[in-house]
């Protein structure tokens, strides 16, 4: 991706309404930005030999990249690369405060396949004269106030879009640009109550269970519910499997799995139900897995 290419800002407001604006640059800057994005692409792809479909359950290893297909925002960026850039309104730097820019992107199309390079953009990258004086160096080692609004670019890529596939390494960062809620949801209070009422589960104190359910607990409960784990395996199935992990704080009371009131112990049980815990074949020690992919 070395040819001259156009640059765009991806804007998304709090209601999820998206817009694309063209970043007008002169030829020398266009050349330099093209080289910077290309260098960041090389770093992003370096050492990657495995692409893994994202399911919300784990983080990639250093040789892996997460992928999702047919993300609407990605398609908007692909479309922008393939139409006349002047059909988009120009980005006005002085209006940054009113334009929630989430990403900067560029790309090319070769052989019928479009490749888009995406950087995350945050409000801290927009330096506005309305908020603070911007100081620059002038001749003679004298600092003066700049009269121009400016912004900076990031030092790495957030994602690469190729065809209908979006590749990324951090879900946390990707969701700031792309709407990934359907791939990674948290259990609501009603979902927690529903789990507490399940015939295989005993919750001693629903109020305590709900109050200590942080984001991680809620994500695990949502996945357990979505996968139908408690409907697929009986209490006996679960307790027999747990016998292989003597350090697991699992307790069966009145034919039900009693969820711990301690947050760490609760997370251990939820990880176990999600098959996130495995035993080292040599040491016999228990470990928390980074991935549940079948070998």
Give a concise summary:
It holds the Pfam family KwaB. This protein has 295 residues and is of the alpha+beta class.
**Structural Rg:** 25 Å
- Work out the helix count: 9
The rounded distance between the terminal residues' Cα atoms is 35 Å
Strand order of the largest sheet: 2-1-5-6-11-12-4-3
| Helix share, percent | 25-40%
Main structural class: alpha+beta
Biggest sheet features:
8 strands, mixed
Looking at how many chains there are and whether they match, the oligomeric state comes to single chain
Rounded mean pLDDT is 87
Order of helices and strands: EEHEEHEEEEEEEEHHEHHHHEEHEE
Q: How many strands?
A: 17
Poorly predicted runs of 5 or more residues: none
How does the overall form come out from the CA principal axes? elongated
Question: How many domains would you count in the coordinates?
Answer: 2
Strand content: 25-35%
């Amino acid at each position: 991706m070395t040819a001259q290419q156009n640059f765009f800002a991806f804007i998304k407001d709090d209601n999820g309404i998206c817009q694309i604006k063209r970043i007008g640059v002169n030829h020398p800057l266009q050349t330099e930005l093209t080289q910077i994005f290309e260098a960041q692409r090389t770093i992003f792809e370096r050492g990657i030999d495995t692409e893994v479909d994202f399911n919300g359950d784990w983080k990639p290893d250093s040789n892996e990249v997460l992928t999702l297909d047919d993300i609407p925002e990605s398609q908007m960026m692909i479309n922008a690369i393939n139409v006349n850039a002047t059909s988009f309104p120009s980005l006005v730097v002085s209006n940054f405060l009113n334009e929630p820019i989430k990403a900067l992107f560029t790309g090319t199309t070769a052989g019928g396949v479009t490749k888009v390079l995406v950087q995350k953009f945050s409000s801290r990258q927009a330096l506005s004269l309305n908020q603070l004086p911007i100081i620059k160096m002038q001749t003679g080692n004298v600092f003066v106030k700049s009269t121009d609004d400016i912004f900076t670019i990031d030092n790495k890529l957030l994602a690469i879009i190729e065809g209908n596939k979006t590749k990324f390494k951090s879900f946390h960062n990707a969701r700031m640009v792309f709407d990934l809620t359907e791939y990674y949801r948290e259990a609501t209070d009603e979902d927690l109550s529903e789990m507490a009422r399940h015939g295989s589960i005993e919750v001693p104190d629903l109020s305590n269970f709900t109050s200590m359910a942080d984001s991680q607990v809620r994500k695990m409960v949502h996945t357990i519910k979505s996968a139908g784990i408690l409907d697929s395996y009986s209490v006996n199935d679960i307790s027999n499997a747990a016998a292989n992990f003597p350090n697991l704080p699992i307790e069966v009371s009145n034919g039900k799995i009693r969820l711990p009131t301690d947050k760490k112990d609760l997370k251990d049980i939820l990880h176990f139900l999600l098959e996130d815990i495995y035993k080292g074949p040599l040491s016999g020690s228990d470990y928390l897995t980074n991935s549940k992919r079948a070998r």
